[in-house]
Amino acid sequence: MATLTAKLPEKLQILFEKSRYKVLYGGRGSGKSWGIAQTLIVKGFQEPLRVLCAREIQNSIRESVHRLLSDKISELELDKFYKTTERSITGINGTEFIFEGLFRNVEKIKSLEGIDICWVEEAHNVSEDSWNLLTPTIRKEDSEIWVSFNPKYEDDPTYQRFVVNAPDNCRAVLVNYLDNPWFPDVLQKEMEQDRARDKILYEQKWLGRPVGTGGKVFPAFDKTIHIRQFDRKLIAQRGNCFIAMDPHSHYYPFITWLAVIPKNDRMNWPEDFYKHIYAEWPTFEDLGGYYYELRKKLFYKDSLADMAREIYAKDGSQYGIKVHRRFVDSRYAKGSGSWNWSTSTEGLVEQFAKSDNGGLKLECPYEKVIDAQKQVIHQDMLYNTFQPVTQYNEPTFSVDPACKNTIISLQNHRLEEDPKGDGSLEKESQKYKEPPDTIRINYAGLEDFRYQDPTGKKRKRHKGPAIKRGGNSWMR
Fold it and tell me: How far apart are CA 379 and CA 454, in angstroms?
C-alpha cells in the first residue's frame, strides 16, 4: 500500500482515510478516475471486496469504468489474479466488481447486498432521486461511497449534496490538472487553447468551477412548489381538459393531459385560470425508467386503434373527465395506422379520426405558435419568492406527482453545451425535450386553433375562450 500511495497525487490520499463519503471533484486531467481505479484494484488484491461501479446512465458496459479498471490491472501486472470478462471483473480471493446504471435499475440496485465500496463516476449527472435510492442501499458496516465528477452547474444535485452542503462524514477535495504531476502534453495544449479563448469555459472545464444555473430552459421550476395534486373529481367538475402528443415514427409517443381550472369566479383569461398537468403516457412505471432513455428500445408495435384505447383509458373518464380537444406536434408527427405509421402530419390526424381507430381526432397548432410557448410556461411558473405562497401569491402552473417523466424533464431540461464556446448557439438538449414539448403543444392549442384539416379545408381561427360565469363551458 505504501508504494501505491506514493504514486498518487497528494490530494488523492483521502482515498486511504476513514470516511463514509470520499468525493473528488474538479476539472479535466486531474487524475481522479485514474487514481480511484488504481486504488480499488490494489485494495481488491489485498483483501476481498465487493465494489459497485455506478453511474446515472449506463446503456452498455462500454459506458462504464470497466475498461479503465482492466487497463489498471494490466498496468499493475495483476492479470493472473483478476479474471476479466466483457461484463465482469473478479479476483481469485473473492473480490468482485459490479457495473450498473442507477437510473433504470431501481429494483436491482435496491437488492444489492454486501457492497464494501460504491464508486459513482461522472456523478454530475446523478439525480437527487438516484442519490436517495443509492445511499441507503450501501448499508454494510463501514461501507463507503466514492464520488468523482467534473462540476458542471451550481444547482446540480451532486454538487449541492457533497460540496455546498457536505455531510459531516464526507471528505470532499477539489482536484485539478495543477495537482496532477503526470498531466499529459496533449491535454496541456488543449487547456492552453481554452484558457486563451474563453475564460469561463477554461474555469469550468479545467478548474472545476460550476457555472450559474446551467442554462435551464425552465429555471423557475421547483419541486417543492410546482408539484401539486388536484382531486380528479374537482378537475371533472371545474376543469377543461386537453391532451397533446409528440409522436415518433414507431417509438412510443409522449402525451400529457392538461387541465385548465378557474382559480376564482372572475373568470378572466388567462390570469384567473390555473394550468395543471394531471396525467402523462407512457408513465415512468410503464417503461421502467425515464422516457428518453427507453423510447428507442421499446417500440410501440400495436396499431393506432390500440393506442387510442390506451389514451382513452388515461383520460380519466372514470372520474367523469371530458377531454375537449387533442393536439399533435405538427413539426414531427408521422401518420397512418401500422407500427411504423406513415409520412405526414395529416396522415396521423386522419387515421386517428377514423372510427375503427377510436375516433380520436387530433388538431395541429401552428409551429410558430408552439415555439413561442416556452416563455409563457415559464411565466406561469413565477410567483413572488420573497412572500409566502398563498392563493394570492402562487404560480399558475403545476404537475401531478405521478407524472414523473414530466417532472424529471422540467427539472433537467437545459440548453446544449456551446461547442464554439462563444455563446452563439442556444439549442435545447434532446434528452429532456419531449415532455416539455407536449406542454408547449397544449399551450399552443389553447392559444391558436388554426390548423390544416386532413380533408384540405382550412378551419377558422378560434376567437378566444367562450366563458360563462359559474359554468365550466370554457373552450368547449
Answer: 34
Fold for 2-207, please state it: Rossmann fold (3.40.50)
Q: In the predicted model, what is the mean pLDDT of residues 382-397?
A: 87
Nearest to 40 by CA among 113, 121, 111: 121
What single string gives the DSSP state of each residue in 194-256?
A: HHHH-HHHHHHHHH---BTT-SBSSTT--HHHHB----HHHHHHH-EEEEEEE--SSBPPEEE
Spatial CB neighbours of 88, under 8 Å, sequence gap ≥ 6: 96, 97, 98, 99
Task: Delimit the domains of the chain by residue range.
Answer: 2-207, 223-447
- Global pTM exceeds 0.85: no
375 contact partners, CB below 8 Å, separation of at least 6: none
**131 C-beta neighbours (distance < 10 Å), count:** 19
* CATH class of this structure's domain 223-447: alpha beta
**Across the strands, what pairs with 355?**
none
* H-assigned helices in 84-126: 106-110
Question: Does 89 or 356 have the greater pLDDT score?
Answer: 89
| % of the chain with per-residue pLDDT over 70 | 83
Q: Is the pLDDT of residue 138 over 60?
A: yes
If phi > 0 it is left, if psi is from -120 to 50 it is alpha, else beta; for residue 279 that is beta
Q: In what order do the strands lie in the sheet with 170-174?
A: 82-84, 89-91, 96-101, 50-55, 117-120, 144-149, 21-25, 170-174
pLDDT digits (tens, 9 = 90+) for 181-233: 989 999 999 999 999 988 878 988 999 988 765 567 888 898 889 999 999 88
